[in-house]
Structure formats: structure tokens, C-alpha cells
Specification:
Layout lengths: L2 H14 L6 E2 L3 H11 L6 H10 L2 E2 L6 E2 L18 H5 L1 E7 L3 E6 L5 E5 L5 E6 L2 H17 L6
Antiparallel strand pairs: 1-2, 3-4, 4-5, 5-6, 6-7
Helix pairs in contact: 1-5
Length: 152
């Protein structure tokens, strides 16, 4: 099952269970705005597919994070203290979590990385691909949407 099919599967499952789940994708101009803001290298195709399907938001995914458009553009504010100019040339930033964790791709590496802006600053590979990261989020959303805790 490809990424688009996995997203569609989550949407259908939520509808079958009569649970509200909305997602809105970005148009080509909005995606290009994100790519232009990075000014480095093209992101992986799986990221572009995600932005086309869910880029403006998807209920119960990436909670507390700014990965959706236009909030993801705030990632580029005040990053001079977190990333050197040389580092930025070798990465594609695509979001942050509450302003202290930054999500990015490294040039030549298909994985998803996160930098925690605490002392000491730490980079961690959190997924082998963007698709893997999104699959984790879809599983988490599915648990929230389709298996709500029953009241006692």
C-alpha cells in the first residue's frame, strides 16, 4: 500500500466508525513556497505526497507540531542560533515541535532527523524515511479516532 492509499485508508476507517477526520492538502503554489523557503534541495517524494494530501492539516496527527502549511513556514524564524549557515545548506527543514525540536531531511540521507534545541543540542534520526514517520502518526491517529476509550 503506498502512502496515498494509507492516508485514504485512515479516512475511510474513520468514516466507517462515524468519527470526524478531516485533512486538507496544499496546492502546487503552497508546496513551492515551502521548497523556496528552504532553498536547498528537493524533499523526498513521500513528503510531497503528504503535503498534497494532508499539508494544511489532518486531525489527530503531529499534535503540538508545526508541520502543516502555513505554520511550517515559522520554522525559519529565529533559527540562526540553532543551525549554522553551513548546516542549513545541507538540510531541508520541514517543521518544528513547540519551537524547540526541528524536523529535517539531510542531503543524501533518506531519513527524518530531529534537532532538540536544548543544552546540549542533539540531532537524532527518528525515522528511516518520511513515510515511516507518517505511518507512526497514522497508527497513533487511528488509535485515537477508531478506538476511543469508552466511558465507565
Amino acid at each position: 500500500m503506498n502512502l496515498s492509499e494509507k492516508i485514504e485508508s485512515l479516512i475511510l476507517e474513520a468514516k466507517e466508525k462515524e468519527v470526524r477526520f478531516q485533512c486538507n492538502g496544499c496546492n502546487e503554489s503552497e508546496i513551492n513556497e515551502i521548497i523556496y523557503a528552504n532553498n536547498t534541495f528537493p524533499p523526498p517524494d513521500s513528503y510531497l505526497s503528504f503535503m498534497e494530501k494532508m499539508g494544511k492539516g489532518a486531525d489527530h496527527t503531529f499534535l503540538g507540531s508545526s508541520l502543516f502549511y502555513p505554520g511550517c513556514l515559522s520554522t525559519f524564524e529565529d533559527i540562526d542560533e540553532t543551525f549554522s549557515k553551513e548546516e542549513l545548506e545541507g538540510m531541508f527543514l520541514f517543521g518544528h515541535h513547540q519551537g524547540y525540536q526541528y524536523y529535517f531531511f539531510k542531503r543524501g540521507d533518506g531519513g527524518v532527523w530531529m534537532r532538540t534545541d536544548l543544552t546540549p543540542v542533539k540531532d537524532e534520526r527518528i525515522a528511516t524515511s518520511f513515510e515511516e514517520l507518517l505511518e507512526k502518526e497514522i497508527r497513533a491517529a487511528r488509535k485515537i479516532l477508531c478506538n476511543p476509550q469508552q466511558e465507565h
